[in-house]
Amino acid sequence: MLRKYGLSIDNVVDAKIVDAKGRILDRKGMGEDVFWAIRGGGGASFGVILAYKINLVHLPPLVTVFNVPKTLEENATDLVYRWQHIADKLDNNLFTRAVLQPIPGKKKGEFTARASFIALFLGDSNNLEITWIKSVLFLAYFPDGTPETALLARNLASPTAFKMKSDYVKTPIPKDALQGLMDTVAKSGTIQVMFNAYG
């Protein structure tokens, strides 16, 4: 829902922290610079977070999700290139993500790359609608039919450890660079790249 409402940090309206001097401070007491930093703007610890006050948003009773996977052999590079040119122009009720990942190729031990176009629409559709909580399972890659209670167990659908780096791209990546990226993903057998279309 970040395309319409922003990230969770964008919805934090107050917080309580304990600073290095042992003081309990709210947003006003800590000041806007520290408030900005504790929501992800800083690279270090500015205190112990005791609580966040978060602005809640309205959830529609039904949302629509879909996943369209395409391999390199199915023109995945061209599709990612074209997706870049429309992703920022889509309705804010439609969140889309393009995930590039290696998958086994036709020959044993070889990999190819797949681009999966994953989406969540804050509204209904005749055959694709599900509850929002089920969309959380979908976007977290839980298998179809996973009960909602799986979210309470705090088990990831994929328990593999990983490292992640985030960045913002403001202009489309050229097609030849995307092809190089797709080739690198395929050859790696492990690297995954995710593009999220923010609002």
From TrEMBL:
This is FAD-binding PCMH-type domain-containing protein. PANTHER family: OS08G0158400 PROTEIN. SUPFAM superfamilies: FAD-binding/transporter-associated domain-like. InterPro entries: FAD-bd_PCMH-like_sf, FAD-bd_PCMH_sub2. It comes from the Eukaryota.
